[in-house]
Amino acid sequence: MLLVLGFGLGAFLVFYNIRIYQKRVELQKRAESLQSQIASLESRKNELGSAIQVGTTQEYQEKVLREQGLYKKQGEEVVTIIPPKQVQEEQKQQQANRVWWNPFSWFK
Fold first, then answer.
1. Which pLDDT score, from 0 to 100, does residue 103 have?
2. Which of 23, 35, 37, 71 could pair with 65 in a Cys bridge, judged by C-beta atoms 3.0 to 4.6 Å apart?
3. In terms of residue numbers, what domain contains 28?
4. From CA 49, how far away is CA 56, in angstroms rounded?
5. What distance in Å separates the CA atoms of residue 91 and residue 105, rounded to the nearest whole number?
6. What pLDDT is stored for residue 106 in this prediction?
7. In a domain? residue 2
């Protein structure tokens, strides 16, 4: 009887040791995954920090404003080319007049 109780207790302890080992392996894998995620987030943080530093420089801000045509230095001229509205309106009107049931409008 004592022998059966000893085997039962031993089997119980072995079973729970296996479960604890499996849980430990699972938690180690999760920790490794989280560590790699932390590393990638740190890298992204550094990239964004350097982009912020570049974006706050006066040279970069001048460049952006120049590209948008909102800034010029002394002696410079800004030229803006705007397409004529009349041409755009004529194109819209021609497309509106094209109708699939009017065969004369198919080849214009």
1. 66
2. 71
3. 1-56
4. 11
5. 14
6. 62
7. yes
Q: Which residue has the tokens 């590393």?
A: 39
Whether 37 is covered by a domain: the verdict is yes
**CA 25 remoteness from chain centre:** 32
Q: Phi and psi (nearest 5°) for 15?
A: -60, -45
Domains contained in the chain, number: 1
d(CA 61, CA 75) in angstroms, rounded, equals 19
In a domain, 67, yes or no: no
DSSP classification of residue 105: G
User: Residue 66's pLDDT band (boundaries 50, 70, 90)?
Assistant: confident
The residue with tokens 């849980």 is 23
Comparison of pLDDT for 95 and 12, the residue scoring more? 12
Residue corresponding to tokens 């974006």: 55
Give domain status of residue 33, yes or no. yes
C-beta of residue 105 within 8 angstroms of C-beta of residue 97: yes
Contact between 74 and 84 under an 8 Å Cβ cutoff? The reply is no
Q: Tokens 């230095």: give the residue.
A: 73
- pTM exceeding the 0.85 threshold for the entire prediction: no
Cα separation, 103 vs 54, in Å, equals 59
